[in-house]
Design goal:
Helix content of chain B: 25-40%
Low-confidence stretches of chain B: 1-33, 36-72
CATH class of the largest domain in chain A: Mainly Beta
CATH superfamily of the largest domain in chain A: TolB, C-terminal domain
Oligomer: heterodimer
Distance between the termini of chain A: 21 Å
Structural class of chain A: mainly beta
CATH architecture of chain B: 2-Layer Sandwich
CATH superfamily of chain B: OmpA-like domain
Strand content of chain B: 5-15%
Number of domains of chain A: 2
Order of helices and strands of chain B: HEHEHEHE
Shape of chain B: globular
Largest interface: A-B, 47 and 34 residues
Shape of chain A: elongated
Strand content of chain A: 35-45%
Structural class of chain B: alpha+beta
Radius of gyration of chain B: 15 Å
Chain lengths: 449, 182
């Protein structure tokens, strides 16, 4: 890292060095407190942040005026942070210090204060070889200090977007105190005409790759806890069967092949087991299969429909959907099927529960007189809260940090698109997608760090 | 699934009471449909195969068959291979039992796949289970009419294969169905 603002003043006095160190620690602490966003509160005021164009540089550090990667990186960083709803990205035209000066001389805090920015990011990118290196620093404008250290991220050039998402995660994490979620992917069911196929993209909707060709109906892809495997339901045999796809080998394994319905696959958090819905014993019930041994355990036993299992992050409990009480409602049980307890009582249609990776909330689909929306409730069945409502919102899927939920929104006559909503319920965004592609059933990968 | 008659009757009466209040209104609110959960979803086929439910009168038929003709027969003498269901229900009603009885006689030694379907509202996974329950209810009725169980396969498509594209009760009532594919 070659950044003058980050160099500690040299001194021969140990005492002075120690006191300087102590002072740095103190100011670092207060600096972080000054720019910290408290996202545990309900409504959050977006933090004004300045993200100037990253400087394109040669390997020797000199400016490379013919390169354009710096702008692409800083645009993706800004877009990630903006979509989170926690940051207000300031207009570049109001900036008083140019990117070259910002990078070489460090921030002129006096000037940045005039822009209204509470934090400013400086960055430089070298992509002259086959590898891209991006360096960035984050500064607290009010305190006039760095927030954390400068950091470099490198990747093969064609994966420049990963570098940008990684920087956005780092900024998010330093300013909120929580893990980011930008370096992650979403797998979903894409649809055009009569065809449905599996597709995968970055969480911001860019960089989409199709996984299947749409010759047979596919439903409900589910990322494994490591992001290396998918479960999904396919009708390739003519009947709904559950497959496991090893993404990096392309191999597919038939994991749910019982007579009748095989649906609603769900990974245990350790990746060793699959909960699913089978009707092989005459009625839709939840079973758990040990993937290594193939052994099958039945968890529910009643004449109603039991489906949509989702594990708690500690693997000890499962939330699911059952209409045993007369209408579809949310229940929890221990992972061995004991202690089955109903947790939703408001309304006549509560379904498709998904346990947050933080463990503190369960997202689900709530049907009411006006349509269907995404709600959250805590695992004890308290503090139910609606986040979205529309004609048909469904299939909530948590971002890896448990702060944002992706879901499917079906509009009458227009087909379905993917949206995200954060836990405040105030920051709803459509996930950018080709206009002729409909999308449903998102599943969010873990962080790819 | 065979449900004890006493339970079934109670469940059916409950369904009827609730249904009366939110019957099928074309273009009505989601409460009036598949996901309104007015029914219990518990009803199946009585042990003697006799239907205990009723039709709510909202279905329209696309195939030109007179909906008031209880014979379940199409114009050329071949039975209709399709039965319809009430909202959120897998109960075989009087009309459906007639149609299935016709099919049971017509099938003879043929094999048949029963496909269960739902309307577009409600979650994908719940509807997959509900579609399966409808296919199973139709299968049980066919068995009660003498069709060999080994000749009947069931498959649920949930809400994936609507018969009619539309966003009102007129469309929904035709999409809540089981198709018999000989």
């Amino acid at each position: 890292m070659n950044h003058s603002a980050q160099r500690l003043p040299r001194t021969r006095s140990t005492l002075l060095l120690m006191s300087l160190f102590a002072w740095l620690l103190m100011t670092m602490g207060t600096a972080q407190a000054a720019v910290q966003i408290d996202i545990s509160k309900g409504g959050v005021q977006a933090m004004p942040i300045a993200i100037p164009k990253f400087l394109d540089i040669h390997p020797d550090g000199s400016v490379n005026p013919s390169a354009a990667m710096g702008n692409r990186i800083s645009d993706v960083v800004a877009a990630d942070l903006e979509r989170s709803g926690l940051f207000q990205i300031l207009e570049k035209k109001g900036f008083l210090q140019d990117p070259a000066s910002l990078w070489k001389d460090g921030p002129s805090f006096k000037e940045w204060r005039l822009t209204g920015a509470e934090a400013v990011v400086s960055g430089a990118v070298n992509d002259s070889g086959g590898t891209i290196h991006a360096d960035f620093f984050l500064h607290d404008v009010f305190k006039g200090t760095a927030v954390g250290k400068g950091q470099r991220f490198s990747a093969p050039k064609q994966e420049w977007h990963l570098v940008a998402h990684r920087i956005a995660d780092e900024i998010y994490s330093r300013l909120t105190g929580e893990a980011g979620y930008f370096t992650s992917r979403i797998v979903f069911v894409a649809e055009r005409g009569d065809k449905k196929w599996l597709s995968i993209m970055d969480q911001d909707g860019l960089n989409r790759t199709d996984l299947t060709e749409g010759r047979s109906l596919v439903l409900t892809p589910r990322f494994s806890p490591t992001g290396e495997h998918l479960f999904f339901v396919s009708y390739v045999s003519g009947e709904p069967r559950i497959y496991r796809w090893e993404l990096y080998t392309g191999k597919k394994f038939l994991e749910g092949d019982y007579p009748g319905l095989n649906s609603a696959p769900s990974w245990s958090p350790d990746g060793s087991r699959m909960a699913m819905t089978l009707n092989k014993d005459g009625n839709a019930e939840i079973y758990v299969k040990d993937l290594a041994s193939g052994s099958l355990t039945r968890l529910t036993q009643n004449p109603g429909i039991d489906t949509s299992p989702s594990w708690s992050p500690d693997g000890r409990r499962i939330v699911f959907n059952s209409d045993r009480g007369g209408s579809p409602q949310i229940y929890t049980m221990s992972a061995d099927g004991s202690n089955q307890t109903r947790i939703t009582f408001e309304g006549k249609y509560n379904a498709a529960p998904s346990w947050s990776p933080r463990g503190d909330l369960i997202a689900f689909v709530k049907g009411g007189s006006g349509g269907f929306g995404i709600s959250v409730i805590n695992p004890q069945g308290n503090q139910e809260r609606a986040l979205t409502s529309s004609w048909m919102d469904e299939s909530p899927a948590w971002a890896p940090n448990g702060r944002v939920i992706a879901f499917t929104r079906e509009s009458q006559g227009k087909g379905s698109k993917l949206y995200t909503i954060d836990l405040t319920g105030q920051n709803e965004r459509i996930v950018p997608m080709d206009a002729d592609i409909r999308a449903s059933d998102p599943s969010w990968s873990p962080l790819i760090h | 699934m065979i449900t004890k008659r006493s339970n079934l009757l109670a469940v059916s009466l409950l369904s009827l009471g609730l249904l009366a209040g939110c019957g099928a209104v074309p273009g009505g609110s989601p409460d009036s449909g598949e996901a309104g959960a007015a029914g219990t979803g518990q009803a199946g086929v009585g042990e003697d195969g006799r239907a205990l439910g009723r039709h709510d009168g909202s279905s329209a038929y696309l195939d030109g068959r007179n909906p008031n003709d209880p014979s379940g027969r199409g114009a050329n003498g071949e039975p209709e291979h399709r039965v319809f269901f009430d909202l959120n229900s897998s109960m075989i009603d009087a009309r459906a039992s007639d149609v299935l009885a016709q099919n049971a006689r017509w099938l003879g030694k043929r094999n048949v796949t029963v496909e269960g379907h739902c309307d577009e509202r409600g979650t994908r996974e719940y509807n997959l289970a509900l579609g399966q329950k409808r296919a199973d209810a139709a299968k049980q009725y066919l068995i009660s009419q003498g069709v060999d169980a080994s000749r009947i396969k069931t498959v649920s498509y949930g809400k994936e294969r609507p018969l009619v594209n539309g966003h009102n009760e007129a469309a929904w009532s035709q999409n809540r169905r089981a198709d018999l594919v000989p």
